[in-house]
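Notes to self, BPL/LPL catalytic domain-containing protein:
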Amino acid sequence: MSATFPLLQLDEVDSTQTFALSQWDSLCGESTGPILFGVQAAHQTNGKGRFDRSWEDLAQGSVLLSLAISLPEQATSQAAWLTNLLVYSAGEVLENELPALMDWQIKWPNDLWFNGKVAGVIATARPRPIQTIERSKQVARTNHYLCGIGLNLLPPANSHSLPFAQSVFELARKSGIEAELNLDIWSWGEKIANRFAQQLATWADNDWELPSEVIANFSRRLLNLGQKVTFSAPLASNDPGVAQTGKILGIDPAGGLRIQIKDAEKIYYAGEITFPQKTEF
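result:
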């Protein structure tokens, strides 16, 4: 199935995120969303990750994709689910392409995990005022977001300095199924974008309330679900926080991580906690 929204495919850009933001108005056209357009590149010279980290890729060896999203006002309180749904969609595509890799997991909040990090997701709000648009004879206020994913089909260029980096090819090779692997980055990009679009359509069809089944399915994929992990909750960027131990319970409807600490349950959102033990969570 081909994308029902514009999906621009480029040989090289500085960053699909930066390019999408700079060309937003011209690429949107008359799209009404939820996905307005997508940008995929075979190589990035200045890839972006979370917290201003860089993302290095091997040219023609990674899926480098950014998707522009429009959400109605009533969905913005659950905007954290954009990250969740995109990484979940990538996991579903991975499993469909290679059923032997069906035991993929999600390292909250944004990594696709299978014996290491296979893909990472970033989602940011577009810095612009909320606009009013006409849709279905009703006036709706929308917020715009930009979601990006980098998925390693081949080992990343700097894999020697990334001890937890993993690639689809290496996973397939270890399973003895590398001959079955599709290494067409454009095909993978389209499939991930289309599956993400289907997830957003399910959300929209439920009047922008996430179905409980979606939340449960995501929770079941969490790395270390039901296990104790060590984490800290820094109060400021230069504050390492105090190490705590808690048990991962799942995801709440707003996209936060549910952690049981002693006899109480607390909910943390992306950026509020860190996990010093990278192999643990």
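- Helices lie at 16-22, 24-28, 81-97, 168-174, 185-205, 212-220.
- Confidence is low (pLDDT under 50) at residues 129-141.
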